[in-house]
Design brief:
The complex is a heterodimer of chains A (213) and B (76). By secondary structure, chain A is an alpha/beta fold. Chain A has one domain: Rossmann fold (3-Layer(aba) Sandwich), CATH 3.40.50.1460. In chain A, a hairpin with a 2-residue loop joins strand 4 and strand 5. Chain B has one domain. In chain B, strands 1-2 form a two-stranded antiparallel ribbon. In chain B, strand 1 and strand 2 form a beta hairpin. Classes of the chains: A alpha/beta (213), B mainly alpha (76). Chains A and B meet through helix 1, strand 4, strand 9 and helix 6 of A and strand 1 and helix 3 of B.
């Protein structure tokens, strides 16, 4: 069983997202899962399709820009849309990108994907310009909350549990910024609430990497 | 009449949201999908222009205020 992840890094925000996604790779390694990491310029449609055909992946995890009907890879190339959605049949898909949960996600499940977790509206996050990505506690609040879902999946939990743990992580960070209240908190909390409310799950919520192997 | 009323509400909301973002600490940047990482000045310009991203930023603030109101009502 393997995991395929796309981590383009061609702009500041996507680079930050991709840096925090490395933690999923570490967790997957600990569980003995093979990770195919399409990082940087490797996050293209051609490479993705080739990996999806060649490897038996149970989880496909996309990081990148998105729209209601697509997910982009390196340099905004659409790497996932309705024309190649059949390649995700029987796989759990997690998309950390804007809006793919509004049309693409339900479409993937209709086309046979085991389940989908993503966002039905824009995924937004704050970054602290004074910190390097990776040392940025503010960006970490958003990206750790979102990434809790794929981390939970690689640990063998069900899609429902992964979604719930991600929602709980959003709550944990909302409470953290509420308790440690600063001017920054008044900007961070509304966006954490926004992302939490826009996170969606479709398909078989009992699916896990164990059940689909 | 109804439309004009809505426009007035939108203008009022725009002002409220701009006023909020004026107090955003300068170390913060906002990543909003493909629109990139926005500074405080970028955000205010988008809201003033009333473009898609400006509208989305207003929607986010309204969404938060609604969820805050619901939370308060649930506690009463």
């Amino acid at each position: 069983m393997s995991v395929i992840m796309t981590r383009p890094n061609y702009d500041e925000a996507i680079n930050c997202v991709s840096i925090y996604a490395e933690k999923i790779k570490i967790e997957a390694d600990k569980k003995g899962l093979t990770v195919h990491d399409l990082y940087g310029k490797k996050a293209t449609r051609m490479v993705l399709e080739s990996f999806l055909k060649k490897h038996k992946a149970g989880l496909v995890f996309f990081n990148g820009h998105g729209a209601s009907d697509l997910v982009a890879g390196h340099d905004d190339e659409p790497i996932l849309d309705k024309n190649n959605s059949h390649l995700l049949r029987a796989k759990i898909t997690h998309v950390l990108a804007c809006s793919a949960g509004s049309q693409l996600g339900p479409g993937l499940v209709e086309n046979g994907a085991a389940a989908f977790i993503g966002y039905k509206n824009m995924f937004c996050f704050h970054m602290d310009r004074s910190k390097k990505p990776g040392d940025d506690k503010i960006a970490a609040a958003f990206l750790e909350s979102a990434n809790q879902a794929p981390i939970s999946l690689v640990k063998g939990n069900t899609v429902r549990e992964a979604y719930q743990r991600s929602q709980e992580t959003y709550d944990k960070w909302i409470n953290y910024f509420d308790i440690h209240y600063t001017l920054e908190s008044s900007f961070v909390i509304p966006l954490l609430v926004w992302d939490k409310l826009n996170q969606v799950v479709y398909g078989n919520e009992n699916a896990s990497l164990t059940t689909i192997s | 009449m109804g439309d004009r009323g809505n426009e007035k509400i939108s203008e009022a909301l725009k002002k409220v949201v701009i006023a909020r973002f004026r107090s955003m600490p300068p170390n913060l940047k906002l990543s909003v999908g493909a629109y990139g990482a926005l500074t405080k000045d970028d955000i205010i310009t988008h809201i003033q222009d009333g473009d898609d991203i400006g509208k989305a930023l207003i929607e986010m603030q309204v969404s938060f205020m609604r969820s805050f109101k619901q939370k308060l009502q649930a506690q009463v």
